[in-house]
Design a protein that fits this description.
Shape: globular
Radius of gyration: 19 Å
Oligomer: single chain
Low-confidence stretches: none
Largest sheet: 7 strands, antiparallel
Structural class: alpha+beta
Number of helices: 5
Number of strands: 12
Distance between the termini: 33 Å
Helix content: 25-40%
Strand content: 15-25%
Mean pLDDT: 93
């Protein structure tokens, strides 16, 4: 895919909210079995070309993996699948997931996440556009790690709680970090956008020379922001995204 797909957030929003709730359920499933990480990476789901997937987990020696297929409209787990939307609300999928655990003889109680949708709303066309966007962004985030710099990079993961896809760089093997991420809208910005944040935030980070059309944002969180629509309109969006990242990295320091 050479170009980012057009995303109309008003059309996408109901599908996005439902998929976020489904992702929360899958996230809680994998957290039963993945070891806790100091950076909470066990909470993140991986991106694949058709949607999202859990990391593999093997509770009794047999490996399982859950696939949320945005393009086919189903949730696949081992030899079982559930159709997205229709009668399968996120609550019902949660209940089915607990039943699946019981059927496998896995004596675990699934922790219920905070679900925001009551009735399932799923538009496969909108979901497919989102899958393509996430796949493109995941590829670009992977490229930002090359050539490797000193320190450690996080996996590129989508965290269901905020529904953001992110990559973090830890240059000194401690909590100091620079992160880039993509959010499909939130309470701060009501449209898809990219962000760069730093912890702890260095002096004058707000005065970074963010490449146009990105800008400094300080209303609920502090960081550089690049709107998805502005990136998509750029002739070479991958180049602009790398320039955005490099501006943050230079201001952050090594």
């Amino acid at each position: 895919m050479d170009r980012l797909p057009t995303i109309d957030y008003h059309q996408l929003a109901p599908t996005r909210d439902y998929l976020q709730d489904v992702a929360k359920v899958v996230g809680k499933l994998q957290q039963l079995f993945l070891p806790a990480d100091q950076h909470q990476w066990q909470r993140g789901l991986a991106v694949w070309s058709d949607g999202l997937m859990s990391r593999p987990f093997a509770p009794k020696g047999e490996t399982y993996q859950a696939l949320i297929n945005f393009k086919e409209g189903d949730l696949q787990l081992h030899n079982t699948s559930w159709e997205l939307a229709h009668h399968n609300s996120a609550q019902q999928i949660f209940d089915e997931m607990q039943h699946w655990l019981n059927e496998q003889g896995l004596d675990y109680r699934l922790e219920k996440p905070q679900l925001v949708t009551q009735q399932p709303q799923f538009d496969v066309d909108q979901a497919s556009l989102l899958a393509d966007a996430l796949s493109w962004i995941e590829d670009r985030f992977e490229e930002l790690q090359r050539p490797m710099r000193p320190g450690t990079f996080s996996p590129v993961l989508l965290y269901p709680h905020h529904f953001d896809l992110s990559l973090s760089w830890y240059p000194n093997q401690n909590e100091r970090q620079l992160s880039i991420g993509f959010v499909v809208a939130d309470n701060y910005i009501a449209e898809p956008y990219f962000y760069i944040t730093a912890y702890p935030q260095p002096p004058k980070f707000d005065q970074t020379g963010w490449p146009s059309p990105s800008f400094w944002f300080n209303q609920g969180f502090s960081g550089g922001v690049l709107k998805y629509a502005d990136l998509r309109a750029f002739e070479k969006p991958a180049d602009l995204l790398e320039e955005f990242w490099q501006a943050g990295r230079l201001a952050f320091g090594d």
